[in-house]
Amino acid sequence: MGISCADAKSLVAKFQQQITGKQPPGSSQPVSASVDGWLCVSGPPSGGGGTSCSRGEQTVFAEAAAE
Protein backbone atom coordinates (compact mmCIF):
# COMPACT_ATOMS: atom_id res chain seq x y z
CA MET A 1 0.00 0.00 0.00
CA GLY A 2 1.49 3.34 -1.04
CA ILE A 3 1.14 6.87 0.24
CA SER A 4 -0.50 9.55 -1.86
CA CYS A 5 1.52 12.51 -3.14
CA ALA A 6 -0.60 14.90 -1.04
CA ASP A 7 0.02 12.84 2.12
CA ALA A 8 3.76 12.65 1.36
CA LYS A 9 3.93 16.44 0.92
CA SER A 10 2.06 16.94 4.19
CA LEU A 11 4.39 14.54 6.01
CA VAL A 12 7.52 16.29 4.73
CA ALA A 13 6.03 19.73 5.56
CA LYS A 14 5.29 18.63 9.17
CA PHE A 15 8.84 17.29 9.48
CA GLN A 16 10.34 20.51 8.12
CA GLN A 17 8.31 22.50 10.68
CA GLN A 18 9.62 20.29 13.50
CA ILE A 19 13.27 20.77 12.55
CA THR A 20 13.11 24.50 11.85
CA GLY A 21 16.11 26.12 13.53
CA LYS A 22 17.76 22.78 14.42
CA GLN A 23 19.99 22.60 11.35
CA PRO A 24 22.08 25.67 10.42
CA PRO A 25 22.45 26.32 6.64
CA GLY A 26 26.15 25.34 6.58
CA SER A 27 25.71 22.26 8.77
CA SER A 28 27.36 19.00 7.75
CA GLN A 29 25.14 16.95 10.10
CA PRO A 30 21.78 15.33 9.31
CA VAL A 31 18.80 15.86 11.62
CA SER A 32 15.92 13.46 12.35
CA ALA A 33 12.51 13.47 14.00
CA SER A 34 9.42 11.27 14.31
CA VAL A 35 6.27 12.48 12.58
CA ASP A 36 2.95 10.60 12.82
CA GLY A 37 4.75 7.26 13.24
CA TRP A 38 7.30 7.96 10.49
CA LEU A 39 11.04 8.41 11.10
CA CYS A 40 12.24 11.29 8.94
CA VAL A 41 15.83 12.33 8.28
CA SER A 42 17.02 15.47 6.55
CA GLY A 43 20.47 15.33 5.01
CA PRO A 44 23.01 18.02 5.79
CA PRO A 45 22.41 21.33 3.99
CA SER A 46 26.07 21.45 2.99
CA GLY A 47 25.49 18.23 1.03
CA GLY A 48 22.35 19.44 -0.74
CA GLY A 49 19.83 18.43 1.92
CA GLY A 50 16.96 16.18 0.92
CA THR A 51 14.59 14.27 3.18
CA SER A 52 13.63 10.62 3.58
CA CYS A 53 10.87 9.29 5.79
CA SER A 54 10.21 5.63 6.51
CA ARG A 55 7.60 3.57 8.31
CA GLY A 56 7.74 -0.20 7.98
CA GLU A 57 8.01 -1.05 4.27
CA GLN A 58 7.04 2.48 3.15
CA THR A 59 9.57 5.17 2.23
CA VAL A 60 9.09 8.76 1.07
CA PHE A 61 11.91 10.72 -0.57
CA ALA A 62 11.91 14.51 -1.05
CA GLU A 63 14.64 16.46 -2.78
CA ALA A 64 15.79 19.83 -1.53
CA ALA A 65 14.31 22.59 -3.70
CA ALA A 66 16.49 25.39 -4.97
CA GLU A 67 15.31 28.85 -3.95
Key structural traits:
67 residues; alpha+beta; 1 helix; 4 strands
Give structural notes.
This protein has a 4-stranded antiparallel β-sheet with strand order 1-2-3-4, with helices on one face. A hairpin with an 8-residue loop joins strand 2 and strand 3. With 67 residues, it is α+β, with helices and mostly antiparallel strands. The protein has one domain.
Based on Cα principal axes, name the global outline.
elongated
Count of DSSP helices?
1
Tell me the distance between the termini. Answer: 33 Å
Radius of gyration: 12 Å
Share of residues in strands: 25-35%
What's the overall average pLDDT, rounded? 87
How would you write the strand order of the largest sheet?
Answer: 1-2-3-4
Order of helices and strands: HEEEE
Topology:
Elements: H1 5-19, E1 31-35, E2 38-42, E3 51-55, E4 58-62
Brief description of this entry?
The protein is α+β, with helices and mostly antiparallel strands and 67 residues long.
